[in-house]
Amino acid sequence: MLTAIIDYESGNLHSAEKAFQRMAAEVHGGEVVVTSDADVVAKADRLVLPGDGAFPACAAELRGHKGIYDAMVEAVEVKGRPFLGICVGMQLMASRGHEYELTQGLGWIEGDVEKIAPSDVSLKVPHMGWNNLVIDHPHALLDGIKSGDHTYFVHSYQFHVTKPEERLAHVDYGGDVTAIIGRDTMVGMQFHPEKSQDIGLRMIGNFLKWAP
After folding, report:
1. Which residues, in sequence order, are CB contacts of 174 under 8 Å at separation 6+?
2. Closest CA to 83 of 207, 186, 183, 212
3. By the 8 A CB rule, do 24 and 32 touch?
4. pLDDT tens digits, residue range 9-26?
5. Is 58 a catalytic residue?
């Protein structure tokens, strides 16, 4: 079993790599590699797409690595390999992003990524720090996770899903802010599981065991 964390030059992957490798050892989840090799992405059993920065820049970097991009799309859309997007990696699963300019996403989860606009003007953007999850729908990723468990966020844009059933969890930040999305073999987390202590590690382990 091979999990590929896709390196498309969009962020520091060291902490994610260490967290996934730790949990792979604990749950017998096989090998975890950080890779920019399209052949490795193509043969991987699970794919993880991180992302830090702005939606347009990350989208351009991903599509600019054509071999990686094509291998990832085929693995997810054709082969049905389990996929996890993290932070901007989750946002790229959307139909469109509205950060700075209109940018097309992967279109895997229908919806738009737009600026966070809390109803409470005292709440600052970016949404940064710990926040409590509210579970909307059960999922294997959430095994052992409950509403009230908290995870670590750093983001200024939020994913508005079109289909409510594809929002698995949210947090309250002057209104509902999507925390986890998913359908079929695809899931995404707006927060950083590798920075979310035991709860984040539990979800990483759940992903590595997931057999959709």
Report:
1. 117, 118, 119, 120, 123
2. 186
3. yes
4. 887 799 999 999 999 999
5. no
**Average pLDDT, whole number, for the chain?**
97
Q: Is 74 a catalytic residue?
A: no
Catalytic entry in 17, 58, 65, 87: 87
**Domain chopping of the chain, boundaries:** 2-209
Active-site pick, 17, 99, 166, 194: 194
Q: Let me know if 192 is a catalytic residue.
A: yes
For 2-209, CATH gives 3.40.50.880
* pLDDT (average), residues 141-167: 98
Asked if 171 contacts 132 with a C-beta cutoff of 8 angstroms, the reply is: yes
Mean pLDDT of 175-185: 98
The count of other CB atoms within 10 Å of the CB of residue 30 is: 14
106-140 residues labelled b (16+ CB within 10 A) or e (exposed)? bebbebbbeebeeeeeeeeeebeeebebbbbeebe
pLDDT at 113 (0 to 100): 98
Taking phi over 0 as left and psi of -120 to 50 as alpha, with beta for the rest, 102 belongs to beta
Looking at the DSSP bridge assignments, the partners of residue 151 are 131
